[in-house]
């Protein structure tokens, strides 16, 4: 894609005043974004294709028996561990580029994966080379981390092959050597080994394995992530991914509603709501002749009604402080799949935008639930729908596929947390336990329709959205600039990458893709 050169004023959002959250008491955000020289920012990159599991078709590997799952595990580990060599990852892991640089968490997992596949050399068809790691000298701690990860992979292999006694013995070794307060690999293995133990306990009848229990566990994670929480907001403030995606998404909304005087945004997962203070400041700084007459925010939720109302009052107060007329309404439904046009009050003359951040992956099974929500969104006649999703293929019906994909994804995230937060910080411990402690159990231990959260890659979503009559809108160069601008305001920003992927944006960490932001309209 062609590079773009343009000037950006001291405003964070195009046409807006400098962005700050200092005055917004209800939310723990406190940073002002100033001018950054655009010449120092990576403004564009060639789009790359992303492999994904098509949700419109069954997984071609799903029919394989347990006896064949060990072959699948070798294949998945080999494919992912060597993917940086084949270009499946957008860049080689940055930590490997400088000579003598410390290995990242993902590097260590890749080395463990290489050793795991190499130890099964009778499977020549899936053998891989250690590639860039063949001449790496590991420290004592790194060697221990690699060994611990390899034991975890061996345990997953045996669990998939229903060799539960062997898997249990391996997991006991993981339990002894891992810790929620140790180094990143020890923390990663702590959560994933317990997730595997949970799966084995379900398979062997040691714990309840009913659909109700499984769905309740899956639902608990959804509630923890979606309910407004100061702790979770602080966690996302300390790492770049959420902020980068939100600023880029808000910029897309600003551009698609340019010139609109009555604006109505519908947020399908408002969480703490601080993202809308960004939009408010952009709208409040418009010239008098284009001044917004009224902003309306409708928060759609299935949880936390009282806290959402409190958060709404804070948003309205923030808008009033800017001289921006604002109305907040909440819509609580038992299930997002039950949302309809009748739930959202849209007035004549309002221009509508919809924000869907990490929402659609909770409705992908059965697919008619997601179809229903998309039809409801269409009925609102939005000018733009901004979608943020995890860039991970964790929707396979085959356990080992999900486990390996999730483990590699989490390794990049744990590497980010190691760079961005101290090991003993309560915020880090809360985020790890909430996001990965529970999600690792859901990915590893829960099968079938009881698994609520089903992350998929952006090209899979593109296929689905097009089938539903949606057209992808290109994220502008300014959206890309906003994303890079915000990334640079996080102290640990350097390994964070923001690049174009087709018409959307892809946020990554040391070359591994973490989440995507795309904009859509209806035909």
UniProtKB/TrEMBL annotation:
A motif (VHIID) lies at residues 263-267. Keywords: Nucleus, Transcription, Transcription regulation. GO terms for cellular component: nucleus. Its main location: nucleus. Residues 310-342 are annotated as: Leucine repeat II (LRII). It comes from the Eukaryota. It is found in: Nucleus. InterPro entries: TF_GRAS. Pfam families: GRAS. Residues 445-521 are annotated as: SAW. Belongs to the GRAS family. PANTHER family: OSJNBA0084A10.13 PROTEIN-RELATED. This is DELLA protein RGL1. The lineage of its organism: Eukaryota, Viridiplantae, Streptophyta, Embryophyta, Tracheophyta.
């Amino acid at each position: 894609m062609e590079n773009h050169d343009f000037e950006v004023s001291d405003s964070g959002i195009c046409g807006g005043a400098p962005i700050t959250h200092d005055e917004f008491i209800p939310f723990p955000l406190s940073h002002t974004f100033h001018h950054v020289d655009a010449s120092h920012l990576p403004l564009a990159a060639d789009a790359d294709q992303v492999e994904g599991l098509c949700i419109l078709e069954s997984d071609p590997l799903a029919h394989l028996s347990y006896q064949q799952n060990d072959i699948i595990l070798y294949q998945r580990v080999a494919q992912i561990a060597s993917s940086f060599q084949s270009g499946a990852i957008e860049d080689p892991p940055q930590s490997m580029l400088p000579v003598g640089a410390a290995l990242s968490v993902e590097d260590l997992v890749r080395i463990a994966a290489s050793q795991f596949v190499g130890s099964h050399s009778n499977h020549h068809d899936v053998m891989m080379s250690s590639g860039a790691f063949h001449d790496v000298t590991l420290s004592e701690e790194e060697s221990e981390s690699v060994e611990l990860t390899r034991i975890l992979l061996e345990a997953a292999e045996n669990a998939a092959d229903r060799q539960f006694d062997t898997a249990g013995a391996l997991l006991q070794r993981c339990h002894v050597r891992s810790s929620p307060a140790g180094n990143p690999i020890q923390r990663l293995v702590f959560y994933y080994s317990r997730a595997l133990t949970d799966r084995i306990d379900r398979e062997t009848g040691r714990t309840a394995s009913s659909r109700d229990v499984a769905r309740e566990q899956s639902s608990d994670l959804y509630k923890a992530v979606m309910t407004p929480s100061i702790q979770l907001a602080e966690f996302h403030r300390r790492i770049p991914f959420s902020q980068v995606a939100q600023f880029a998404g808000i910029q897309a909304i600003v551009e698609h509603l340019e010139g609109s005087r009555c604006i109505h945004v519908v947020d399908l997962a408002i969480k703490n709501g601080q993202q809308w203070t960004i939009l408010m400041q952009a709208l409040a700084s418009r010239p008098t002749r284009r001044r917004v007459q009224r902003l309306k925010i409708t928060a759609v939720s299935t949880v936390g009604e009282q806290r959402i109302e409190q958060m709404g009052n804070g948003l309205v107060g923030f808008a009033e402080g800017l001289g921006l007329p604002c109305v907040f309404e909440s819509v609580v439904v038992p299930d997002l799949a039950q949302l309809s046009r009748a739930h959202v009050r849209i007035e004549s003359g309002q221009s509508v935008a919809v924000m869907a951040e990490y929402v659609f992956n909770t409705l992908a099974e059965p697919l008619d639930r997601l179809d229903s929500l998309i039809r409801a969104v269409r009925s609102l006649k939005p000018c733009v729908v901004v979608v943020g999703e995890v860039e991970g293929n964790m929707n396979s019906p085959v356990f080992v596929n999900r486990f390996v994909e999730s483990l590699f994804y989490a390794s990049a995230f744990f590497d980010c947390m190691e760079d961005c937060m101290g090991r003993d910080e309560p915020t880090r411990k809360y985020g790890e336990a909430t996001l990965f402690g529970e999600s690792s159990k859901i990915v590893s231990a829960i099968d079938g329709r009881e698994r609520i959260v089903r992350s998929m890659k952006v090209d899979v979503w593109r296929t689905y959205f097009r089938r539903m009559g949606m057209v992808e809108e290109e994220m502008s160069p300014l959206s890309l600039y906003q994303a890079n601008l915000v990334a640079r305001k996080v102290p640990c920003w350097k390994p964070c990458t923001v690049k174009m992927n087709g018409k959307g944006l892809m946020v990554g960490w040391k070359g591994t893709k973490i989440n995507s932001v795309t904009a859509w309209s209806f035909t």
